[in-house]
Amino acid sequence: MLVDSHCHLAYDELRNDLAGVLARAEAAGVGRCVVIGTDVASSRLASEMATADPRLFAAAGIHPNDCEGFQEWVALEELSRQRRVVALGETGLDWYRTTASRDAQRAAFARTMEIAKAAGKPVVIHCREAYDDTLDMIAASRPAGVMHCFAGDEKQAKRALDLGFYISFAGPVTYKKSEALRRIAALIPRDRVLVETDAPFLPPEPHRGKRNEPAYARLTAECVAKCAGMAFEDFARQESENAKRLFGWNS
């Protein structure tokens, strides 16, 4: 079964419908989800949700847009050591929004990568209009990880791969105007590709304008499988193995 490698099930609109969300995901062939934290509160909730349901795993982090003045590093370090927390993030750089200074984002990103390496866990990277700077910082720190909702160019994808990273595609790869992104998806090695929803955001076609949820990871996976010239079943098996290898769960 597929893995939704990045979703925000701790958001009220999904958490309050969790049984239905997970039932629809399983019906669509999405058997596991990584619930992503964006601050300490949502990271703790993600960890609690993952502890309560074997289909869920958690990532703990501080979103770059929310890192200005962040001081709860001890709490993040404690979360990083929890068994069901399989990654740190999301973290990274966002030059599109201005809710946190560039200096604050760089400092938070660097510290999160160090926490991840100390815990022996990968990082989940948020990057928006900052790919070269983000990749420079990854090259300096050398964590393991995944580029979430990849939207860069072919050169940036190759550099991320050369740094050992996985590339994850979300709903935008299905959009009509995303021909360039689909060409990149076709070039990603089969053992380095993941899919995600970023639910409740960025629903794939034909659900744009609606709430996204993990079941729709199948639509993204079908698109990426077609780009790669793979049968869907083969792609799903490979994507699940890729997630297991990156995030380190046992079965």
Keywords:
251 residues, alpha/beta, TIM Barrel, eight-stranded parallel beta sheet, 10 helices
Plain-language structure description:
The mean pLDDT is 97. This protein is 44% helix and 18% strand. The chain is globular, with a radius of gyration of 16 Å. The chain has 251 residues and is α/β, with parallel strands linked by helices. Strands 1-2-3-4-5-6-7-8 form an eight-stranded parallel beta sheet. The chain has a single domain (2-247), classed as Metal-dependent hydrolases (TIM Barrel).
Mean model confidence by pLDDT: 97
Spatial gap, N to C terminus? 12 Å
Helix content: 40-55%
Order of helices and strands: EHHEHEHEHEHEHEHEHH
Strand content range: 15-25%
Q: CATH superfamily, please?
A: Metal-dependent hydrolases
Basic shape: globular
Low-pLDDT ranges: none
Structural class: alpha/beta
And the CATH topology? TIM Barrel
Under the CATH scheme, the architecture is: Alpha-Beta Barrel
The largest sheet, given as strand count, sense and whether it forms a barrel, is:
8 strands, parallel
Supply the CATH class: Alpha Beta
> Compute the gyration radius: what is it?
16 Å
Total number of strands = 8
In DSSP terms (H or I, runs of 4 or more residues), the helix count works out at: 10
Number of structurally distinct domains: 1
Strand order of the largest sheet: 1-2-3-4-5-6-7-8
Secondary structure elements and pairings:
Elements (H helix, E strand, L loop, with lengths): L1 E6 L4 H4 L2 H10 L2 E7 L3 H13 L3 E5 L12 H8 L4 E10 L7 H18 L3 E6 L2 H11 L3 E3 L6 H9 L3 E4 L9 H9 L5 E3 L21 H12 L3 H16 L4
Parallel strand pairs: 1-2, 2-3, 3-4, 4-5, 5-6, 6-7, 7-8
Helix pairs in contact: 8-9, 9-10
